[in-house]
Structures are given as C-alpha cells and as structure tokens.
Amino acid sequence: MRAIVTEGFGGPEVLTMAEVPDAAAGPGEVLIAVAASGINRADLLQRQGHYPPPAGMTDIIGLEVSGHIAAVGSDVEGWTVGDRCVALLAGGGYAELVAVPAGQVVHPPESIDLITAAGLIEVAATVASNLTRVAIAAGEILLVHGGTGGIGSFAIQYAGALGVRVLATAGSADKLALCRELGAEAAFDYHYDWLGAVQGATAEHGADVILDVIGAKYLPDNVHALADDGRLIVIGMQGGRKGTLDLGELLAKRGLVTATSLRGRPAEQKAAICAEVARTVWPMIEGGVVKPAQETRFPAASVAAAHAHLASGDAVGKLILTWT
Question: Which part of the chain is CATH 3.40.50.720?
C-alpha cells in the first residue's frame, strides 16, 4: 500500500510517499480502505519529533480517516465490507489502508460526503469530550482560542447549540468575521489586548470555560481571563509546553486547569467517546445545527504542501488529504 513516511524529523520536506506492507485487521479490529485523511496540528508536531506515537503504534502519521470497511477481524460485529466509516486513530492515517479497533470506528453522518467526513471525528471527539469533562452549562461563557481552525470552528457551533455564550480569538479581520458567522457573539484579534477585550465583553465576569490550543504562552492570561469557578482546558501546545501558573490567583478564583489528549487514551475510553459523538453530535450535523468546517483538500502526494499551509497560519477550518 502507499503511505506517507518521514525521513527523519524536520520540515514538510521530510514527508514522502512510499510503498509499505499492507495493514491487516487483527482480532477486534477492522481494516479501512482510506478515502481521505484529516490533518491535525498534532501531525506537524509528530513530523518535527515532538509528539511520538504511543508505544507499539506505527510511525505513520495521521489521527483520523474516512473510507470503507475493507475487512473485518475476528470478534467484530456490526460492520460489513463496503460500509462507509470514519475512525479515530492513534496513528497510521496517512495511508491507503489502516487497521483500527472497531470501537473507534463509526458510521459518518449520512448527509456528509466521505471526503468531508474525514475531518469530523477528531474535532468532534475532542471538543465534545472536553466540554463534557468540565460540565459546561447553558448560559455560561466559553472562550475559544483559534476560532477558525478545525477545533475552533466546531467548538463555536457546538457550544452555541448547547446554549453557551461563545467568545473567540483569531488573527485577522476576515477570521474574526468568520468566528461571528459561526455563532460567536464577539471575536478578538489575538495580536492585541484580547484579555482586556474579554473582560470588557463580559462586564469583568470573565470566561467560565476556556478552550485553549496555545498552551504555555497563554497560561497566565488565561488564568486572568477565568471567571470565579472557571475551568481552563488545555488541548494544544502551539505556544510551548512550560509556562508560569499563578497558584494564588487560581486559588482565589477556585479555578480548574485541566489538560487532555485523545491519542494516548485506552481503547475503551476512545470507543465510549466515539459512540457518544455518533449519538449526540451527528444529529446536530444532520439537522444543520453544526456545519462542517471550511476545508481545503490536497492530494495525498501533496502532503508537504498541506503541512506547509497549516503551519503558515493562513489555513481556515480543516485540511484534508485525499487518496481517491
């Protein structure tokens, strides 16, 4: 099968197409003939050597795919060869075939084409599981950093569907306008005083929940931006791994800082999250309440260009590699 492999660590130029042995479905797994692979920020980190796969997992990059069931392993029920599917992976998605634990595979929304579907499962699972984790409630204020990325585009709409008030940050006038189109009641340019803007927009209340893809760089300001009893969810490290946390301020606010990653979770946890996404999020998409993010498609052979585009900061929504 064809797959994208890395020749060492570094920039997009280390990504190349190669022939590798075919993946095969083991017990409890299905084999997917991949139609498209979603691209995520974590893929860039892995390419650079900063986000290694879990022990025993393939070095092939890729955390989500769409496609058709190509084979069904033993001890698997409910799947038939030819079924449309999307899958949440720990790796291996940049390939024509991928073997996945069956619990991490679900049918995509019927109304969504299979290429677009490749960009749904990772963002939906990340956002829904994290907002559930902090028990976000209708009427609360959510601040979403990076409001026009794949995560941000989904989070704004999903939280709005839950009755949450949403604020967002982004880096240009066009992106700020898109945040508002997606449902954010206000959006702020992160090049300027977004912290002051959040305080002003909330009458000094602050954000009840912050969904942060930046990490260390924003840690002090995120704590400042929290409301009393606020919850900060860190899901990315675009701004570094190590920051300064003012425990006194956090104590005074009775604040919570939590950080999560889907990739290293046990298979049973991933299966539960995928099942919950199919049960609760897919109907929102079918009903048009939540729309797939804007997307840019690249042929798999152009993966280096796709990574360069995502790293440039110009990307909006999801980037997807197509194999068919």
Answer: 124-259
- Evaluate the CA torsion angle 80, 83, 88, 92 in order and state its sign: positive
Cα–Cα distance for residue pair 140/151, rounded to 1 Å: 19
pLDDT digits (tens, 9 = 90+) for 4-41: 999 999 999 999 999 999 999 999 999 999 999 999 99
Amino acid type, 98? V
- Measured between alpha carbons, how far is residue 29 from residues 5, 61, 98, 145, 155 in Å? 23, 19, 10, 36, 30
> What is the mean pLDDT of each successive set of 10 residues along the chain, which is 324 residues long?
96 97 97 98 95 93 98 96 98 98 97 97 97 98 97 98 98 97 98 97 98 95 98 93 94 97 93 98 97 96 98 94 94
Residue tagged 């699972």 (tokens): 125
DSSP characters for 199-215?
Answer: HHHTTT--EEEEEESS-
Selection from 196, 199, 198, 207 nearest residue 131 by Cα: 207
**Homologous superfamily (CATH) for 124-259:** NAD(P)-binding Rossmann-like Domain (3.40.50.720)
Q: Which CATH number fits domain 2-120+263-322: 3.90.180.10, 3.40.50.970, 1.10.10.10, 3.30.1330.60?
A: 3.90.180.10
Q: Where in the chain is the domain with CATH 3.90.180.10?
A: 2-120+263-322
> How does DSSP assign 160-179, residue by residue?
HHTT-EEEEEESSHHHHHHH
CB atoms within 10 A of CB 13: 10
**Phi, psi (deg, nearest 5) at residue 78:** 90, 0
Average pLDDT of the chain is 97
